[in-house]
# Entry
Amino acid sequence: MEFRHLRYFVAAAEELNISRAAARLHVSQPPLSRQIRDLEQEIGTPLFERGHKGLKLTSAGAYFLPEAKNLLWQAQRAATLAKAAGTGQAGKISIAFVSPLGGLFLPRIIRSFRQKLPLVDLDLHEMVPRQQLEALLDHQIDLAFVAQAEVESPFDGSAAFRASVPRRHRTVTSPLASARLPPESRERCIETALPSGAP
# Structure
């Protein structure tokens, strides 16, 4: 059984007319009829009752229709996810935050992120700042939100929080401002300001 068998069957089942199904699929009628009969033979039972007025689903065909549509949807979804993952628009990002400060800004960021990249899953972890930096350097998390007071920085104080990622992390696509992190992490992480009033 191939996906084209399922596509042909679904089109015929929805149109209940071989001519209209063939036009919808942009194929000629004989190959369409033959593929449907091949499918019925492989399954081992008729899926349609054929008459002068067109097609009618058998009980087996009526049961098979939603299953076939679901298989086609799953295949399309798999292709969409694979394509999105290849362009960085799908996957999973692990984020660490410090409580209760994360509640001041993180919900807004998550809502905005999910609107823009709905295929990316966010995995949230509550950690103290030192654990966040260690997890970053060990590649256990992808992104850390820390209070400005926890990481000495040359910024002018316009931001209350910082978002830190490893310097060579896959999510870094453009130069960001360097920060004065602790000596052991200064050369391996970068940091960007997170404006306290950002939506």
Strands lie at 48-51, 54-57, 91-97, 120-126, 143-147, 159-166, 189-195. The first strand starts at residue 48 and ends at 51. The domain at 91-195 is CATH 3.40.190.10 (D-Maltodextrin-Binding Protein; domain 2). The first helix runs from residue 3 to 15.
